[in-house]
Here is the input.
Amino acid sequence: MSSPLSFVHPTPDSPWGTYLSQVDRVVPYLGNLARWAETLKRPKRTLIVDVPIELDNGTVAHFEGYRVQHNLSRGPGKGGVRYHPDVTLEEVMALSAWMTVKTAAVNLPFGGAKGGIRVDPKQLSIKELERMTRRYTSEIGLIIGPQKDIPAPDVNTNGQIMAWMMDTYSMNTGSTATGVVTGKPLHLGGSAGRIKATGRGVFVTGREAARRIGLDLNGARVAVQGFGNVGGSAAELFAQAGGKIVAAQDHTGTIYNANGFDLGDLIPHVTHTGGVAGFKGADVMNSEEFWDVDCDILIPAALEGQITEDRARRIKARLVLEGANGPTVPKADDMLFERNILVVPDVICNAGGVTVSYFEWVQDFSSFFWSEDEINVRLDKIMVDALKKIWDTADRHKITLRTATFAVACERILIAREERGLYP
Here is the structure.
């Protein structure tokens, strides 16, 4: 048997290395399905594309793009597209695999996929960004589709980019296909509640976890890394529940206020300036000091690999809610467990986004749309029910919530794999 993915050489703390470690930890709880575990370690399909565009100055630039479909046993691929200068194939592979686990954890009829372009979108004009998006969509068009693989927004992508992707795919196929992407603008088949869905899922799972450990959200001190769509939305909901947002960090800086920020001032500041830096209602901190903040709840909602073993030793929170994908490396996970700090893992904590993406996909097929209140009620029920099953599994086997989430999800994935069989 050939070794999996000989062209990728992950380190233990790299995104793909972290994912493989998580799979290894769950194998003992898979019973007879363990014979299929190797399926989880191999993406079904990886596509690398060249994305050439003409810049506004007339020169031609080339960008490298990716789309990875990790597993399609339970349904079409589902996963975002990110634009970032540090995007790599290995990162996209890991993100697609976490999507496979995430969709199964909340029992959605999807597999896992992910895409990305290695680019700093801030260096492109709007027209250049549109040309790059359309070219990328055309290049991956042979493997995406409403019943094949459905992209969505991720880091540095948004509803406008999804609209360009939907339009490009539709032009190439000859008919309007609103269901090819989710996270679209409302008037193009988007869903109410989608923009804040991931942050809402972080809050809902955090609320349930806090109740389990006897942590009162009223007065709870919350620190948030990444104050964008996910972190900012979660912060708003925790503040509405009586929590105090005492620290915030993003790519522009780190700020602190022991009495809590006035989010009525901070969120408009972030919207206007692009980050938390310069906010007058807070003190400036060194970026590394963020991990030493006295808080009850820590929400890493930025990029993967942020909680290292060293940082895990210093974290003072009782509860870590993973708003980002893969923010905690395996050794840090063990350290937090030893220190009795509860981690609600990404593959359930931030699944609110893909859940409402599912609602959007269903609404596009039926051309019948629900209100935001209906969306939120359905989202809350799915998240609460999924977390209860995961917690029961964790209690039964005396394992972490992460391993329990993988156990529940991987069982569903591998049952589907086994029942479908191998073709030919």
